[in-house]
Design a protein that fits this description.
single chain; alpha/beta; Rossmann fold; 11 helices; 8 strands
Length: 341
């Protein structure tokens, strides 16, 4: 393969409201095309209202872009960085218009999702394609590979998890369980992708580096009708099991999330924390990777491997690096099973 040339980097994320008035329109964007009762929409809106109607995700993306701008400049990579969201300002279509006006012809895209699934990978590709169709002469865009087993993700996640472990009593550190948590998805979606396998591999890599024997992958943020199977166990049920097994302390490591956005804050810092308190469990929650310097360096390394195919594709663990271009049958979703939000 010959080296490829790109004019820019596009950071693609989920998006989130930044004021109370944005919350319901944002959720309507998230759930468009899905038959979700209005009462459920308003129930989820309350999660945002409890924090002033502002999701932290946009500020976290701004911080990441600021760090990444410095990283690319220091490495001599002349790539202006643009930012577009799936569900809220700055929306992808508006960002692509700006890129076109600026003369950008081809760009690499870094999507702020770690794993492969319809909602965390293929849907973003569809979002990009839909935005391109609305913009005349829109730039060509190629997505960087998922990075669940890149040392630039595993190393800072290990550091964050270890910091949380150090917060519990010394005599409990070896025995207390670590629950690696991620967003649940419908079982039908999970059957068509490598989401579960990648999550387990990332969790195992962190656990092995820290010598953790008692660990488990659990899920949070389930939505959809009760009769529809989703990945389990749920974090709240897992906490009950931890207490039933006689443990006094537990560590939660949100390995499925790149940053501390609303679902992490509400589902873990509120609901899981309240459940642990009710059970009499002392809970220590690891921070997400966020804009850790090693993650920022990783993004630059992912760019470099696409600019020059001779660059070593860094990885750790037993699974191979993910592909650059998704095949047609990768991460498809059954039309009977709506994607997760």
């Amino acid at each position: 393969m010959a080296p490829r040339e790109f004019d820019a980097l596009l950071v693609v994320s989920f998006g989130g409201p930044e004021r109370r008035e944005d919350v319901l329109p944002f959720l309507e964007n998230v759930l468009r095309g899905r038959n979700v009762p209005r009462a459920r929409l308003e129930e989820v809106a309350e999660h945002y209202y409890e924090f002033g109607g502002r999701s932290p995700i946009n500020d976290q993306n701004r911080a990441l872009i600021q760090s990444l701008t410095k990283e690319l400049a220091q490495s001599g990579l002349d790539l202006p960085i643009y930012w577009g969201n799936r569900n809220w300002d700055p929306l992808l279509v508006d960002t692509l218009r700006q890129m076109t006006n600026d003369g950008v012809q081809s760009a690499l895209a870094f999507v702020t999702s770690i794993y492969s699934s319809y909602s965390s990978c293929r849907q973003y590709l569809e979002n990009i394609q839909a935005a391109q169709q609305q913009v005349s002469d829109a730039p060509r865009i190629e997505k960087l590979r998922v990075f669940f087993n890149h040392p630039g993700f595993i190393e800072p996640m290990t550091e964050r998890t270890d910091t949380a472990i150090q917060q519990i009593a010394a005599f409990n550190r070896e025995s207390s369980p670590v629950l690696f948590t991620a967003h649940s998805i419908p079982q039908g979606m999970a059957d068509t992708c490598n989401y579960e396998a990648q999550l387990k591999e990332s969790s195992r890599l962190v656990a092995d580096r820290l010598g953790i024997q008692n660990w488990k992958v659990v899920y949070q943020s389930r939505s959809g009708p009760p009769q529809q199977p989703w990945l389990e166990p749920d974090i709240l049920d897992a906490l009950t099991d931890v207490k039933s097994a006689g443990h006094e302390e537990v560590v939660i490591a949100p390995i499925g999330f790149l940053s501390d956005h609303m679902e992490v804050i509400y589902d873990l810092d509120k609901e899981a924390a309240e459940k642990a308190s009710e059970l009499g469990l002392r809970l220590s929650r690891a921070a997400t990777v966020g804009n850790h310097p090693r993650l920022v360096t990783m993004i630059r390394e992912l760019i470099e491997e696409r600019l020059n195919p001779d660059t070593i594709r860094q990885t750790c663990g037993s699974l191979p690096t993910s592909h650059d271009e998704c095949p047609a049958d990768c991460c498809v979703v059954s039309p009977r099973r709506p994607p997760a939000t």
